[in-house]
Amino acid sequence: MRRALCLIFTLMVFFLVGENGWAQKNYARRLVNELCSPEYHGRGYVKKGDFKAAQFIASQFDSLGLEPVVGESYFQEFEIPVNTFPDTLGLSLNGLVLRPGHHFLVEPWSGSGKGSFEAVAIQKSDFVNEASFMARLRQAKGKFLVYSEQDMDSLEQSYRDKLKKGLKDLGMSSNPFVAGVLKITTKKLTWGGSGVASSIPYFTVKSDRKPTEVKKVSVAVRNKHFEHYKTRNVIGRVKGTSGLGKTLLIGAHYDHLGRMGSSAYFPGANDNASGTAMLLSLAKYYAENPHDYDVVFVAFGAEEQGLYGSRHFVENPPVDLEKISFMLNLDINGTGDDGITVVNGAVHDRLFGKLESINKEKSYLPEVKSRGEACNSDHCFFHFKGVKSFYVYTRGGSKAYHDVFDTADNLSLSGFDGTYGLLRDFLNSLTR
Question: Where residue 7 falls among pLDDT bands split at 50, 70, 90?
């Protein structure tokens, strides 16, 4: 009988722990699926994708019982410059129609253009001979310049950077003499954002063809540039129980790259619907289990455009920065097969040691890896202001990044529960 009771008790504990873990991951999965759905248009600046995502996050804050920080609103508004591609987008080479996001990208700074144009190839020999290069440019008047990234990558770094800038500057003139620029690459297609717009179209095509094989380029692209686009951070707070007036700040950017024309959008599952899901999961926990300190949750906007949301928060702080004991930034939290990396772990070695010891004790993740400072996400401006901060990202699993393949279906969330448990225990230890 005693053995039977012990077995029943063990099974109950296993069931409860398993169910809680499943419920946590299931909540995250629902959030990722929602934020990556076509309704949010890649959480960018076409069809108000960013606005819809911010509204959804605010509704989650409200349902969890978080209090607003900016007056009676969860929103902190700011403006950004942004270049967008709301509708028309087409490209064909020698009559072969290419698929956006799969076969080609329009460069983020591209301007509008329409028509069929002869192509002029810049070859490797042209890059290393200034006279030959200038001759090719003159030959390309009213035509499309085509070059190979592989040829350019073989050049010395400083010269390569100079050439890239020169080719980009061709389109910044109000009266450009070329019709457009097309780069051929064998590398993965990776998109980004831009706050500036050129006056001609720019494309990147994934192909192993040589530039000289391209004879005709047919394009149809329309850009829309905003100098003062209004977007927002979403901020909520759970009051602490100690009355000490100290704050923990947990942040994750919710924006992504949005739409590239009418048929392609970038779901941004790992980057950063996953981090937003971790943010909301921790908000749910602290709403039910208040920390000694106030915990402020910030879903930052416009990270992909250049860390605009976090910079605006730091320059216009709705909470006293000097009272922030620690800032945790969550960006790319959707895998975890190989553990996590902690940016600033080497800077704050005592705090990192605490995080690492918790993981060793409870075996949440395969590895907790430290690295030095890097201004590569929303922790950056807090770090510069002297706020102790970590940026945590997961490793392993899906390689999709800034492409159309970073979908909810492709995201395993394999290390989500372990990362969540480790970060929760670490944050709870910070009052000691």
Answer: very low
In the chain, what are the domains? 24-83+226-429 (3.40.630.10), 88-221 (3.50.30.30)
Q: What is the pLDDT of residues 383-422, one digit of tens each?
A: 999 999 999 999 999 999 999 999 999 999 999 999 999 9
Q: Is 98 helix (H, G, I), strand (E, B) or coil?
A: coil
CB contact at 8 A, 61 and 234: yes
383: left (phi over 0), alpha (psi -120 to 50) or beta: alpha
- Print the SS3 string covering 124-140: HHHHCCHHHHHHHHHHC
What value does the CA radius of gyration of the chain take, rounded to a whole number of Å? 25
Structure tokens that stand for 82 in this block: 């942004």
Lowest mean pLDDT among 86-95, 126-135, 142-151, 326-335: 126-135
Over residues 365-389, mean pLDDT: 98
Cα–Cα distance for residue pair 268/263, rounded to 1 Å: 16
pTM: 0.93
Query: Is residue 403 within 8 Å of residue 188, measured between CB atoms?
Result: yes
> What b/e string do you get for 291-322 counting C-beta neighbours within 10 Å, with b at 16 or more?
bbbbbbbbbbbbbbbebbbbbbbbeebebebe
176 vs 174: CA distance, rounded Å: 6
Q: Which of 259, 430, 265 is nearest to 358 (CA)?
A: 430
Contact (Cβ atoms closer than 8 angstroms) between residue 222 and residue 88: yes
